[in-house]
UniProtKB/TrEMBL annotation:
Chief place of localization: mitochondrion
Localization (cell): Mitochondrion outer membrane
GO BP, sorted A to Z: mitochondrion organization; positive regulation of mitochondrial fission
Swiss-Prot/TrEMBL keywords: Membrane, Mitochondrion, Mitochondrion outer membrane, Nucleotide-binding, Phosphoprotein, Transmembrane, Transmembrane helix
Protein name according to UniProt: Mitochondrial elongation factor 1
GO cellular component, one term: mitochondrial outer membrane
GO terms for MF: nucleotide binding
Domain Mab-21-like HhH/H2TH-like: 366-452
Domain Mitochondrial dynamics protein MID51-like C-terminal: 151-350
Membrane topology: Single-pass membrane protein
Top-level taxon of origin: Eukaryota
Pfam families referenced in this protein's UniProt entry, alphabetically: Mab-21_C, MID51-like_C
Membrane spanning residue stretches: 25-44
Amino acid sequence: MNFQGTRRRGEDGISMVIDFLLSNARLVMGVGAAAVLGIATLAVKRLIDRAGRADNDEKVEQKMAESWEELSLVSASPTLIRKGIEGVVMKHVAKAAKQQKADLCQQPQMSSLEGQSKPESKSKRLQLSVLSLQERLQQYYHTRVALDVQEVQRAQSLALDICTEIQGFLRSRHPDMPLGEMSLGGSLLDDLQVVSADHACLLVPLQLEASLWRLIPGEETLLTHPLHWMVRRVNLEYFPKGHSYWDRYLVGGYLSADAVVRMFSKAVMETMNWPSISSTMDCLVRPVLGGPELRLEIRPWNEVGGAGSSDQTLFISMLPLLSEGDVGLTAQPELTSPWVNAWHLSLYPWETQRLARLDTADDGYRRHTLKLLKAVCRLNPALRSLEASPMANLILHLSDSESDWSESSLDVRFQQCITELIGYLEQGVLPSYFKPAVNLLSGLSEDQVDQMGFMLYCAVSEPEILLI
């Protein structure tokens, strides 16, 4: 328990109770009960504010009734709330709130003086309070979510320069390596990146002989994972090993994604003359070594010749890619470990194309909503573990039942996404839209789910807390 000794008279009652309950709620009650306390806290805060503004006892009672009505959300909270918790919470909060009301009524003059001493702060609060959720969402989008056009162009230009350098180097050093044209991919190219243009993907397509290789779906492999595909070497009786350039990266008869990544790490990350490239591009370019990813860091030089601030850093990930029809497999050992032969089936192109088609058909704001959710999760520490894919799939699932995704319904859809996400977190399962057997929440720990649930439950009654 953490008690502060500097509170003004009248605050001790409610603050001590809330501090105690909140500090211990998630440890003994879980996400559902912690959510009850979060909602109760918000409601009591409103009660105190309203009581402080009331002119007489009759108005105080009226405002208190309105605040307790808002606690109806508690009874509607999901089944994770244990029996008896609701009564305990109500008892303690009601007692503290009653004491707080009495103390407030005894200090009308002090409240008046405090109100006069902070006119600017009060004015700002009133200004925010008159904005509707729809207006707050649009304001948040333009000030926090959307990227500056020049910032995007700069990041894309740097990524394209790196792409040109790497492709030219590989063609000169490894002319026999069958590679397609490298290109940019990911959210930076698809206008789905938010907050800052700080990462990009460089797609490196590997060219395989159709008669010598077969892409095997994850469900047909021994791994039985829908996203873990394998690439088998076939027709060995007619075309023995050595007929394909990629035979040198075979492990147990399969093309090893791990071996391909290690090859590119040595051929590109550890071999290219990065100081020379940095001088040519007028910025610091260096590989990020020590992990399974093929990653580059680009930082601009400042006026005194040193590296710029970390806020301007751009990270570029190299992704070896195998394509066959609409199937795209990437070599990402960090996602397929410990299986060295497994390739990752990327659902990102399917999700992005589906959202774009739906929005084009009805002039919808699905992608707009996705960017809002991505920014909220990125800027809120409690939600930071939620990646873009669960948010995209959440919207795709919701689009099957909701047809109105116009700009005027943005606030309704945003709140609905919060409610839907709470349900998925409670179940511990958010199925992929295209691969229902894949649970997009499987990588979250119990503690992360508790933190997310607590924040989202509070946002049910106060969605603005996500837009701070």
